[in-house]
Amino acid sequence: MWCVRVVGAGVAAVLAVTGAASGAGAVAEPEADLAYHGVAELSLGRVDLRLTPRNHGPAAVEDATVRLRWSEPLANRQWLPEGCARSGARAVLCRVGALEADEVGEGIEVRVWLEGAPSEVLLEIDTVWSGGAVDRNRDNDRQRVLVLDTGDTYYF
Question: In terms of pTM, does the model score above 0.85?
Answer without folding.
Answer: no
